[in-house]
Amino acid sequence: MKFFMKDPVPPVEAMVHTGSHHMLVAYCGDMCLRLFEDHHQAFKSLGTVPCRFSISCLCYDSESELLLSGTLGAVVTWFILANRRGLQMAHTVPMTGHEFVQRVSLNGPQGSLLALCENIVRVFTYQGQGQLKEVKTFTSVASGSTITCSFTCVSQGNFYAGNRAGEIHAWGLDQGNFLHSFQAHSSSVICIHSRPETYTLLTAGIEGVVREWTLTSGSLLRQLDIDENLRQLQFIDNTTFFCQTTYSFSLYHLPYFYSLFNICGSAPQQVQRVCCGHNWTRILCATEDGLLRFLSPVTGDLLVLTWPLLVMDKAVAWAFDSDKEELFVATGGSEVLVFDTTRSPCTAKYLVCPTINSWDNVRCLAYVKSHLGKGLEGLMFCGHESGIVRILSHYSCAQIEKTIHSGPVLALSTLEGPQKNSLLCSYGMDDIVYLTEAVLQENKVILQSAGRIYCGCPLKHVILLPDSVGAITENCCWYLWNYQDFLTSSESEQSTKFRGTKCLHECTITSFDVCFSLKLFVTGAVDGSVRIWDFHGRLVTDLDSALHFGPVCFANNRGDLLLTFNQSIYMVSCLKLLPPAQLIHLDNLSDACEIQEVPKPFLPSFFFSFEIVFVPKFVYLRQGLQELQGLETLVNKRVIAFDNTVPHVVEEERHMSLVIQERPDLYFFEDESIDLSTPDTKRNYYPHRVPAQLHLTGWDGFNVYHILQCFFGQGQKWPFAPDGYIPNSVIRACLWPEGIPIFLRCYLYSPSRDKDWDMTELLKPQTLPLITSVEDEISMRKQKDKSKRQKKTSFDALDYMAKQNWMGRKLTEGLMDNIIEAILTLTIYCSVEKYKKYFSALARIFANNQISSRLLSETARRLLEDITHYNPHIRELAWDALERLGFLSRPFAIPLTLGLLDCDGNVRAKALYLMIRFAGIQTKTRLLQLLKNPKTFQEMQQEMIGDVPLGQLLGIQASDVQSLLSHVAQRLNENLTLFFKEKALKLSFGISRPGELEALTEHTLIPLSEPEKITELKKRKRRVHMKSRKLSTYGIMYGAYLGFWIPPHHGSKKQG
Question: Residue 849, SS3?
Fold first, then answer.
């Protein structure tokens, strides 16, 4: 139905419906408000109300029944008169900064009112009678662009705002503190919506793209292309939104089948269900940052986590002893590190070396809970490189070993929960699966064979089930062997009796788990696909999603599934996952509730503040004896920082002493071995009689021996616990009663050093050949002190300028150009710290001033040159500066690809982060598709950096993209990590001379030799001398402009 106006109406600039008043209020740019009845009365005109000022937006609050209008420097409130007789102005609420109010919103925290004022969001509360009171402001500190939309997420405690530059800014709701920002779109943001149930953020840009971002890392998860002329997007509920374009209106539904289980803060590498007892399970999750954590399968809460010792980077396998609450971790060698999980974070309890052969590495671990007698409540098995399977135990009767396989043991598996029989399933390089049983005979545990399976093909995953053995082959097929079939069958009979299913995935299966109660198993492949099958190999569920899923496992015996992506774990309910035919089996399951554990409080020990952690090391000897070989020192240079409840591993930049670099082990040899077959809390052991062999650089060994001999000669005894655990507090107190010796003191904070490079240090004859002439050296000596003073003045000026608030300052174009040119010159040759300071100053300049096209191009040229710098720290900082200065966009995918092939891990990590953020590329498959697309090269050629195309700055031709394509295909894994890290590609651009291209070579990128470094440093230094005084001059000029001056020597500030 259409209604036609009798009187002509000018173009409507703002309109709002007044709800129960059934009235429309419109502003048409002519200083008056027009009132109309709504569609119930055919839009009949009710008159006009003069307003004496222009109106930018209108909003109606149904609770207070107030009409609100925004204008320059104020928000005006209006009363609606009875019987729709008109409007009455209530109050004019001025803005503190006299900003232009471009939008008024009602979705503020706790029912407050939001006024979007240029680059500030002001929060108001109602005071009655149409009055408003400002209670809080959210100010953008990183950008001066106008804010266009906002969203309040109370459950997360965050406030989000988008601006015309395509940026998203986040603040804390309680304190109003700025948290972070990122580039979401290439043009204005028109909508923001947070999804707490998935811990993601949805944004829409006027360019017609809706994107979903992960809130854990800020990376792009997926995007939806709608229309280039998107005018409005608004969410109706949490999963439905409408879009309005120039000529169309559409409705979209965003179904999600998963709910947030736990935010890890780092990418999960493995998740598995661990049965600890009757109705008591935990979820064990290993993440990329080297942490192992236990999660509650009921709530997803973090129960306990390990401390991030450096040795955890080498972890290859782990198993949990629920009786002693010990977590065993195989560290890639012949040792197993044991953590105490009774506290959080877990402390390193002791090291056990099951073999005296250092080459016989531990490959896998498994624990079975059984009751053999003699106090043996459970057994911990470990498989070795030699094919031997050993039992780790404090009891001598259980410290046994048996050679089972003719090659390395690749996998071990035991049954979940308490068992009558201690069965062990093992698989080795010989492609044979052995079933072995541990039994107690004549006060000693023995391993006796119970059967074998000749596989005929390599296996990737093996699991022991109550009546069968399941496996996933290298060809992605499912095999299931029943006990009665292979226990009595010969090798020839097995080859004809057992056959696998068809291929389950088109690529390698990386994760696998079984839900035995429902006779189902789940597989996850390297391409991110997840599928559920029954034991006959029939497909039950295929998760069809654009998301790339990581490791998976079942959360319980009901079939609830745990998925990993977005650095988090999500749960899919069995009610959404399984068909009705499978859900019928749930009725037959026990409805006993699982134990809901209370998370342990995170109380890190004081001894985690030291650089080294002492751990007793035990070595298994013959005849069930174990010997305390000494105290192993574990390097500790990381800490855990929490973002609310999410743990993050932080690398501490503190002084690492020679003790850590050398990793000395404190060995004490005694005449007799320790036999812990019978735990005795009253027994104390005498310390070793031979003094410690401490290999410590720069320490007089005689003094070490004297200290230890004096202590041990007094007959002191080690306070051993029954399980061989000696806390670090006891070790340090008993080992050195007078305090920690000087060579083992650990510094909590290290004095920072100014790493200002000096050519004279690099040219020392004892370390490098003489490659400069005598004249150069003489000239260098003469200018050394002079250049240092100049650089000191320049650096002080820049350091001060970088810290100032430049908002509101207007510099002349010539002065600003000269300052930028001088800064770029100083970055040619400087230390890493000063390089960071220089570009921090540039970031302030770029954020608050209009930069000429020529200098934009020159700055980008310098940074693109530095991404191929010989120093990896400079390369990483150059990528960071490209991001901070706003140069990066989707066409930078090609140079970012080169960053993925860099020889340095930090540079590769930075390039991967930027690739995900700006190009939305997370997998090798999508990257190859992007590089193969001819439009990618065209976009790079058309992308303008200042007045120069990006393609010209890089000097890349179409043939070079094809060469890069082949290197990506050969050298990158699916997750964009380097396949052969020792063979990273040496790539460079012809940036210094546009038009010339250094072809992509086949050589590996190795660190430059010292002469090559010096040659490059000399070239850079000669360029610096041309303008080394320039910045100090402009710094003083700028200081005089602001009202202060910086003396050339000490850089202190005085009022002018």
Answer: coil
pLDDT one-digit tens code per residue, 661-709: 333 444 333 333 333 333 333 333 333 333 333 232 233 333 333 333 3
SS3 annotation, 454-483: ECCCCEEEEEECCCEEEEEECCCCEEEEEH
**Burial of residue 807, with CB atoms counted within 10 A of its CB: 0-12 exposed, 13-18 middle, 19 or more buried:** exposed
Fill in the DSSP letter of residue 1018.
H
What letter would DSSP give residue 832? Answer: H
Average of per-residue pLDDT across 394-416: 91
C-alpha span between 587 and 310 (Å, rounded): 48
Tell me the CA distances in angstroms from 1052 to 791, 793, 804, one per residue in order. Answer: 16, 11, 14
Helix axes 958-971, 893-900, angle to 10 degrees: 40
Q: What is the DSSP string of 975-998?
A: TS-BSSGGG-B------SSTT--P
Domains by residue range for the chain, with CATH: 1-98 (no CATH), 140-255 (2.130.10.10), 831-971 (no CATH)
Residue type, 574: C
d(CA 426, CA 411): 6
Beta bridge partners of 155: none
- What single letter denotes the amino acid at residue 1038? Y
How many helices and strands, by DSSP H and E, does the chain display?
21, 60
Distance of CA 1043 to the CA centre of its chain: 44
805: CB partners within 8 A, 6+ apart: none
Most confident of 40-44, 165-169, 964-968: 165-169
Coarse DSSP helix, strand, coil percentages of the chain, rounded to the nearest 5 percent: 25, 35, 40
What number of residues does the chain have?
1056
Task: Please report the pLDDT score of residue 580 as a whole number.
Answer: 85
Query: How would DSSP label each residue in 484-518?
Result: HHHSS--HHHHHHH----S-S-SS-EEEEEEEGGG
The alpha carbon of 29 is separated from its chain's Cα centroid by a whole number of angstroms, namely 50
Name the residue among 674, 664, 670 with its Cα closest to residue 620: 674
Could you give the 3-state DSSP secondary structure of residue 780? helix
Query: Is the separation of the CB atoms in 960 and 997 below 8 Å?
Result: yes
Q: What is the CA radius of gyration of the chain?
A: 34
Q: Is 947 exposed, middle or buried (0-12, 13-18, 19+ CB in 10 A)?
A: exposed
* DSSP state string for 568-630: EEEEE-HHHHS-HHHHGGGGGS--PPPP-PPPPPB---GGGGSSEEEEEEEEE-GGG-EEEEE
Strand ranges for 800-954 from DSSP E? 944-945, 948-949
Please name the amino acid found at residue 937.
Answer: F
Concatenate the DSSP letters of all residues of 682-750 into one string: T--BPPPSSPP----TT--HHHHHHHHHHHHTTT--B---TTS---HHHHHHHH-TT---GGG---SS-
Asked if 116 and 131 count as a contact pair (C-beta separation under 8 A), the reply is no
Q: Tell me the C-alpha to C-alpha distance, in Å, between residue 877 and each of 844, 871, 884, 906.
A: 16, 10, 10, 10
**How far is it, in rounded angstroms, from Cα 887 to Cα 902?**
20
Cis-peptide into 664, omega within 30 deg: no
Query: What is the reported pLDDT for 4?
Result: 52
Distances (CA, A) of 554 to 233, 281, 286, 473, 547: 38, 12, 16, 20, 19
Residues paired with residue 15 on neighbouring β-strands, in sequence order = 26
Over the chain, what is the mean pLDDT? 76
Nearest CA among 860, 1052, 1015 for reference residue 943: 860
DSSP 917: I
Residue 980 CB neighbours (<10 A): 11
Predicted local distance difference test score (pLDDT) of residue 811: 57
In contact, 938 and 932? CB cutoff 8 Å: no
Tokens 């952690």 correspond to: 613
Which tens digits make up the pLDDT trace of 568-584? 999 999 988 888 888 88
Closest CA to 190 of 261, 108, 116, 124: 116
